[in-house]
Design a protein that fits this description.
The chain has one domain: Rhomboid-like fold (Up-down Bundle), CATH 1.20.1540. Helices cover 64% and strands 7% of the residues. The chain is mostly helical. Helix 1 packs across helix 2 and helix 1 packs antiparallel against helix 5. The protein contains 9 helices and 3 strands; from the N terminus they run βαααααααββαα. Strand 2 and strand 3 form a beta hairpin.
Amino acid sequence: MLPLKDLNRPFRTPHVNRVLLIMNFVIFVVYWLSTVGIYFPRAVAEKIKYDFTLYPSEVIHWQRLYTLVTSMFMHADWFHLLGNMLFLYIFGDNVEDVFGHVSYLAFYIFCGLAAAFTHILSLYFGLTYNAVGFSTGVVGASGAISGVLGAYLILFPKARILTWVAYFILPIPAIIYLGVWFLIQWFYGLFEVGSNIAYWAHIGGFIAGMMLGIAFGLKRKKEKMARLLR
C-alpha cells in the first residue's frame, strides 16, 4: 500500500518539515555524487559514511554518541531516501501544525533517539534474529518518521490517506492505514530472517510518537481548534 497524499490540509506552513526534507536530500545527493567522483572526491563519501553512521557497538560504549542524530540524515540508496521522504512529506506537515515549529523539531529528534535505542535494546535482548548486529551500521530517517506516523495516528485517526492499492487509488482512514503499517513492522520485527532493516527501530519510534501525541499533541490540537473557533 503506497501512500500518495493525505486529505488533511494544515493551517500553517510546515517550515521545519521542509527543512528536514531538504537536509536529507542535500546530504544524500552530496554523498551519492561523491561515491562516483562527480563534483566531490570519493574521500568525501567515505567521510560522510563514517561520520554519519551509527554503530550500536560504539554507542553502548559511549563512543561517537553524536551519530544517534547524524544517522537520521543518512540513507543507503535512492530507494531508501525517496521512501522515507514520501512518508515525511505526507504526514509531517500536519504533526508540525499541531506541535508548532520548534516543538516539532524536538519531537522529531526525540522519536529518532527512541527508535535508535529500541534497535539497540532489540539486539541486546536477542529480538533481532537476522543479519543485523552490534557492529552493523544503522542509517536512515525511518525511526524518526515512524514517530511522526505514530503521532499522526493519535491526532488524525479519521483523516483519509489516498493510497495506491494494486490497480486502485483508495481513500483509507489513517487509523486503518497506519494500524496495518504498524502491524507489519511487528510481524517483520518478530519473524523476518536475513534482512538488514531495523524494524524494531520503527516500532520504537512509532510508540514514542504515539506517547508524545497523547501526552502533548491532543491538548495542543484542542487548544488550537478552540482558538480557531473564537
